[in-house]
Amino acid sequence: MSAHMSKHANLSGPAAILATMDNCTKCGICQTVCPVAAVTPLFPGPKVAGPQSERYRAIESVQESSSTLCSGCGVCTSVCPNDVAITDIITIAKAASAAKAGPMRLGQRFVNRPDLLGAIGGLVAPLANALLARRFVRKATESLLGISARAALPRFRGRAFRRWLAKRRQPEGPVIGYFQGCAVEHYEPRVGMAVVGLLNHLGYRVEAPVGQCCGLPMLSTGEWDAARHKARRVMDGLAPTAMAGRTIVASSTSCSLTLRKKYEAYLDMRDPASAAVARQVSDICEFLRELPAEALHPLLKPLSARALYHGPCQLRSHQMGWPAVELLKRIDGLDLELSQAVCCGTAGTYGYDRDKRDIAEAVGATLMDQIRASRPDFVICDSETCRWHIAAETKIPCFHPVEILLASIEGAIR
After folding, report:
1. DSSP states of 179-242 as a string?
2. Is it the case that residue 31 has pLDDT exceeding 50?
3. This prediction's pTM
4. Distance CA 304, CA 248 (A)
5. Helix axes of 160-167 and 189-201: crossing angle, nearest 10 degrees
6. Which residues pair with residue 134 across a beta bridge?
7. What torsion do the CA atoms of 208, 209, 211, 216 make, to the nearest 10 degrees?
8. Which of 55, 63, 250, 317 sits at 20 to 30 Å (Cα–Cα) from 238?
9. Which domain does 31 fall in, by range?
10. 161 falls in which pLDDT band (50, 70, 90)?
11. Do 22 and 74 fall within a single domain?
12. In this structure, is residue 154 part of a structural domain?
């Protein structure tokens, strides 16, 4: 164990994150890869907004807001040769800045609660979807709430996935838990159906005990008190599954990352229930990759199509490589091109902010240009907000990797 690790071995949560500042040598590597700093002079870069400025934020009178322009993509942390938790340091600064600034803007509070919005909008889905498709409504929302009129809004679906799962006949095989998150629960039931369908083909019986948001939008923007209550409900809901030794899969890379690492990192949640859930959570593609080759591979049939895969930012923080790519390459006939971009730009809720929308689009220009030049039949991405953003910007369908794997098995994309 290094002297530094020994010195801070007993620290946890935000204290452990901030302690990594001691490792920073100001090499500047993080500055060179930051997609936000590359497109706007307003953001001084992760080294400055992170460890460098954090040393001065301890002085209560210092007001410093550079952290608010960070998208939280995590690229800086992934390339740091000294294991400085740069993105997390900046996120802690966002939380401190939000606490000092007073009440959060109403629009951001709305965006931070996609499960609440989904539940309300789902009650009158046809009307809500029709209204939000109107340009004048979006412009009014932008003016009043600060939610960009250009941001991709998903369609309300009600709780179609939960109703479908309740009627689904499943095999009497090993039970696996599924954290579907708010995206599947309220906006993209087809992804959840694909996850269950694929796991059923593999002989698993799927249970989905929790149907709410993981709270990452709150954590990312500094609304930590509200996030703590939400996190507690999520962990308590998943704890029986975890403590029974069952795997819990998530189809959103941001959700699985939050359950695995962010509750402990930001909220210092280390109680037995939270620890058990964190141990048992797996990204769905990671889980499928780790299965014996004879489990999935014989089920896959040729699928003639050209696709482009974009790995979302959260995969870097998972440190698990590109499991979806490994799985998709098993499908004969699928011509797969890999994204050359580090970020699609939207970065969760970042691209929904009226004041950051231009930055988000500039960050994502590399990916959008590649997609338009390649003209694939469809794009594949593990993250829901990335999918919505990519589809809206390019007008090309965007699917979760599991949807394509299931299409290979069943012969058609649902």
Report:
1. E-HHIIIII-HHHHHHHHHHHHHTT-EEE----S---HHHHHHT-HHHHHHHHHHHHHHHHHHH
2. yes
3. 0.93
4. 32
5. 30
6. none
7. -100
8. 317
9. 3-101
10. very high
11. yes
12. no
